[in-house]
Every structure is written in C-alpha cells, then in structure tokens.
Amino acid sequence: MRRKPRVPQAPLPQRDGIDPVRLRLPAEGPWATVRDHLVDRLPAVAPGRIDAMLRERAFVGVDGPLAPDAPFVPEAYVWFHRELPAEVPVPFPVEVLHRDDALVVADKPHFLATTPRGRHVTETALARLRRDLGLPLLSPAHRLDRLTAGLALFVVRPELRGAYQALFRDRLVHKEYEAVAPYDAGLALPRTVRSRIVKERGVIAAYEVPGEPDSESRVELLDRRGGLARYRLLPATGRTHQLRLHMSGLGVPILGDPVYPVVLPEPAPDDFTRPLQLLARVLEFTDPLTGVRRRFESRRTLEAWQAYGTWAAGRGGAGAPA
C-alpha cells in the first residue's frame, strides 16, 4: 500500500488566529508556471491580484517565497493568506471556564461562530482563543452552532484531538441544553423525540423525512411562567439543528429562532438583538487520557427567562454570564 506523503509544516505564521491556506499542486497538468495554475485554481481571485501577490512574495513554498515566474512542480505545496473582508465584531466575550495542558473549555456567547466558516472567520471562538491564550495549535473537539450559546470544548495539542473527538462521535459525552420556548399545557412531557433529519448543503433549514430515525432528543419541562416555559433538552445524537427542529416539531419553537418553523430574512451583520434562547448548559465525560470524570457547566443565562421584556425589545446582551 502506498504511504500517504507527510504534509510539511506551514512556512507562514497564523494571521489573526487563522492558518494560511495550503494548496497541493496536481500531479500533472498543462501549466508551465505556478502562476498559470493559480489563475485556474483560484477563479475568485483576479489574475492581476495573483500577479501582485506573487510580486509581493505572498505565495510561499517549502523553500521560501515563489517568484512570479516560478515553474510548476507537480505535487508541490503552496501556502498563502486569504484576503479577508472586514467582519463586524461580535460584542460579547468568550469566557474560559477551564484550561490545562490538554483542554480549553469555553463559554461561548450567542452570535459567535465556533470555527471559521463562510463569512465568519476571524470573529470566531477558535480564532479569538488562539490569539488571546497564545495557543496557535488549538483546535475544536466539536462544533456549537453560531446562534447557540454555551460550552465548547477545544484541544490544546493536535495529537490529542482524535481522542476527544471520538467521545462525541461515539456518543460518550453527556450533553444538557436549556431552552426558553412557549408553554403548551397539552404537550405531555417528558418525552423522547426521534426522527430522520435531512440537511442539504446550501439550504438553511433542515427537515424531517420518513425513515429510520437518526436523531434523538429528550425534552423535559423545568419551569413555567405564564405563556413561557424553560426546558431541559438532552440530545442523544448530534444532527445539525436537531434540538431546534425537534422543539419546533412539538409546536413550541425556541424563542428567537430565525429558521424554525419559518425561515426569516437574514438580519443585518451588526444586529445582535433577540438571541436564540438555546444554551449548551452541561458537558460531562470520562477523560480519555486520565480516566477522570469531568463535568463542566455554563455560567450563562437565557435572557428571555430572566427579563422577557428586555429580550423582546432587543435591549439586553447575548447570553451574558450570570
């Protein structure tokens, strides 16, 4: 069996907590120079900008910056930093609840993505923590939705990441969420919801279809106050938007959900009002390295439960620590 070639270490440092882009050139092709290949490989970048970046020595190979006329070398590696558009800062802090030689446990606010994706790159929990903690090799063990606040687990060293990712993959992590949603006296709780969920690439909303269930959520009533209720949600699986979809399917969609039951127009990038009232409250697992049982609890609160009028008027914070 042919051994997979070792990927060289990036010769460029991170920028704002973001790794450089790595390209591996094809094994064969019609290009005489690296420039010719980059023009075909990066259609979103104007050829003139590629020429300027080559003059600025912004494209780097294993032996250093590439000259504008550098020849095409099959299967060579090339690194560069993407030119990122300015992002609106998410005006809420990431609180670090725990840090040791293996793990960082963060208490993420609403509206902040966990990892770079789409238009959210430098304004993400991962990029912030890498910068603020001086941990350039920090990586996520799992992902928490951008609109959901609460606990996110990060791994300090790359060689440890697989062990912690396996906990989530093998469903060995006990997860508890909290949500604020309408109260329905006719909804018998607790109950377990099972369904088959489909999430198509490029489509915002997931949906349920007939077939063998691939998602499971337990829904419990914690408290009620007038027309609102506070729920504990216990997901046994981790499908995209699972809890939001299951709550909507029960007729009690989570407050502030812009997708379920109806997809609303996308808000302005600087609109941080009326956050989704969903919080990743608890993570509990047996540490795969030490065998010690670990339990972490979010310090954040759901504003609609504490002060519904303030949340509804959009005058509060976004999952601020209690």
Structure in a nutshell:
This protein is α+β, with helices and mostly antiparallel strands.
Outline the fold blueprint:
Blueprint: E1 21-24, H1 34-41, H2 47-55, E2 60-61, E3 64-65, E4 77-80, E5 95-99, E6 103-108, H3 125-133, E7 139-140, E8 149-155, H4 158-169, E9 174-182, E10 191-198, E11 207-209, E12 215-225, E13 228-235, H5 242-249, E14 278-286, E15 293-297, H6 303-306, H7 308-313
Parallel strand pairs: 8-14
Antiparallel strand pairs: 1-4, 2-3, 5-6, 6-8, 7-8, 9-13, 9-14, 10-11, 10-12, 12-13, 14-15
Description of the structure:
Strand 12 and strand 13 (228-235) form a beta hairpin. This protein is of the alpha+beta class. It has helices spanning 34-41, 47-55, 125-133, 158-169, 242-249, 303-306, 308-313, and strands spanning 21-24, 60-61, 64-65, 77-80, 95-99, 103-108, 139-140, 149-155, 174-182, 191-198, 207-209, 215-225, 228-235, 278-286, 293-297. The mean pLDDT is 95. The strands form 3 sheets. Strands 5, 6, 7, 8, 9, 10, 11, 12, 13, 14 and 15 form an 11-stranded mixed beta sheet that branches. The protein has a two-stranded antiparallel ribbon with strand order 1-4. It has a two-stranded antiparallel sheet with strand order 2-3. The protein is elongated and about 70 Å long. Helix content is 17%, strand content 26%. The chain is built from 7 helices and 15 strands.
